[in-house]
Write a structure and sequence with these properties.
Rossmann fold; globular; seven-stranded parallel sheet; homodimer
């Protein structure tokens, strides 16, 4: 099987490679990213299967030539300007870059006349502010994007629909909910909390700094996300949209409490205005019924397990730093 | 009043200038277009008010500098890759160019921190294939775009919503229905029919070639469209979307019949496969209730008047050509 994975140096990209290394016999992989990867968690023997290109996906000629030559069975588009905060600061860049990257990929497949399945990764942000009676969100819930990043993701989904209907390009769309897991950067809340807890245990800080703890989110372990993605490429229906989520809502304050419990700490918490967003959605919880029904997906990592692994990850990262 | 009009060399742009020449005392106008204009229908004295730039709106630095310096009261964005047929052949270009042009304009206003009102011109194509029970279409009818051009227009509207909500940029959106009127190019059905009728009267052709005559459309005279646009800039509510339409549906065959009646002809008609579209919406008729309620808009040009003027236009154009 030939995989083209964009955004391969990132959090999700790394976990996708890890998954393929255990589940697929000798996949051929081309990875693209603007940043060099750190793949120290992958076996050297597996890394030999990966051809890495440090290039921009906005470079259309490069994308076209590569896809025409490689003829991937699957394209997993993980590349994106995915920070909501960034999208408020640079709305035009976020919108244009996200949609252009996606269009470059699907146009390359269309023009090369190949039978590549494309995974179009969207976001639960597409639902925007939702009414409580619509929780859990199903794929039929009306979209109401409230930030530039979310608008870009909705556009990508609409573009997908057109390419499926008119050009028969097999695209499967996701609306992926909040990822958590080891190796996630600490600009994301849960990862940041875990890191702060470990630092505090080492006496480096005295308080946990946080944003709005009242929001309710549907957290799903990145390793389950990856499993869902690969199942969708095998069994998902072309042109359909799938929530990738756990189906459970947890208040951020509850998650922070669980982290403290697992770590056996009780560190004081301090809200910080800069971490609050201009518009925040109070509740985002999805239904994973369609995903389960069509692909047989079952969640492996519950919240407790994820949080334990995240704490262990920071424990090991910060230990390494201290002993260096 | 200072107007920045994009796509000023086109059909709608010309009529907008004509409108301003009679309705506004000494407006200052900057017009931008990739094509040179033909403004022989404008008085020379009025043309002196217009500063014309033959430039691409994809050139962001140019757009930013111009808007920062000119500080327009109004931006009327008529520039677009507006052909549905083109959008099927070049889906990516159509999408990216339409959204990028729009984003360049709104970003320029945001960054210059000026109070410019922006008219975001959308299309009835945004509604897509609609159920008969939803006719006439109101602004609350769900959108279901079925071609790349329509997807671009929906995105533009969603981007507008974000810029209004988060950055307080005063944008008013339209969904404009099928324009007709003198000076429209003959790639559009009604203009093409009128031209063919005049040519046939002169013995140049024997048959009228046409596409699908069964579609029902809401035709509105371009001079009424322009009046609606200018009223919306004065009285429309920021962040709102308005149908710009007549509220009446006419089968294309009926329009062709009226043209023949007015011209006193009975020319045979021949369907042509190349003029049929991959996906065609059978019925598109809008409600103009919101536009009328908020702006006091009243239609001046009924279908009979429009068709008469269109025939007269082609009569005069083809007479000139023959006597040259």
């Amino acid at each position: 099987m030939r995989y083209l994975i964009t955004g391969v140096s990132g959090f999700v990209g790394g976990h996708y490679l890890k998954y393929l290394s255990t589940k697929r016999a000798k996949p051929r992989i081309i990875g693209i990213d603007g940043n060099e990867p750190k793949w120290d968690f992958l076996a050297n023997s597996f890394r030999k299967n990966i051809e890495f290109h440090k290039r921009s996906l906005l470079n259309r000629n490069f994308v076209f030539a590569l896809i025409k030559k490689f003829k991937p069975d699957y394209i997993v588009n993980l590349a994106s300007y995915s920070s909501v905060d960034y999208s408020w600061k640079h709305p035009a860049e976020c919108f244009v870059n996200n949609t252009t990257i996606f269009l470059n990929l699907v146009e390359a497949v269309r023009k090369a006349k190949i039978k590549t399945k494309i995974l179009s990764v969207g976001s639960s942000e597409e639902y925007g502010i939702v009414e409580t009676r619509n929780i859990p969100l199903t794929e039929k819930t009306p979209l109401n994007p409230t930030n530039p990043y979310a608008v870009a993701r909705v556009s990508q989904e609409q573009i997908s629909r057109i390419y499926v209907a008119a050009f028969k390009i097999p695209i499967i769309c996701t609306r992926s909910f909040n990822h958590i897991g080891p190796r996630q950067r600490d600009i994301f809340a849960v990862s940041s909390f875990a890191k702060q807890i470990i630092k505090s245990k080492k006496g480096k800080i005295k308080k946990i700094v946080c944003g709005n703890l009242d929001v309710i989110r549907d957290f799903i372990d990145v390793r389950d996300v990856i499993k869902a993605y690969d199942l969708l490429l095998q069994k998902g229906r072309t042109g359909e949209v799938y929530n990738v989520c756990s189906g459970e809502g947890h208040k951020l304050s509850e998650v922070l409490g669980m982290l403290q419990e697992i770590a056996n700490t009780n560190i004081p918490v301090k809200g910080k205005a800069e971490l609050m967003r201009p518009v925040d959605n109070p509740v985002i919880v999805g239904s994973s019924g369609k995903l389960k029904k069509d692909t047989g997906f079952r969640q492996e990592f519950d919240l407790f397990r994820s949080l334990t692994d995240i704490l262990e990850y920071w424990q090991s990262v910060l230990a390494t730093k201290l002993t260096r």
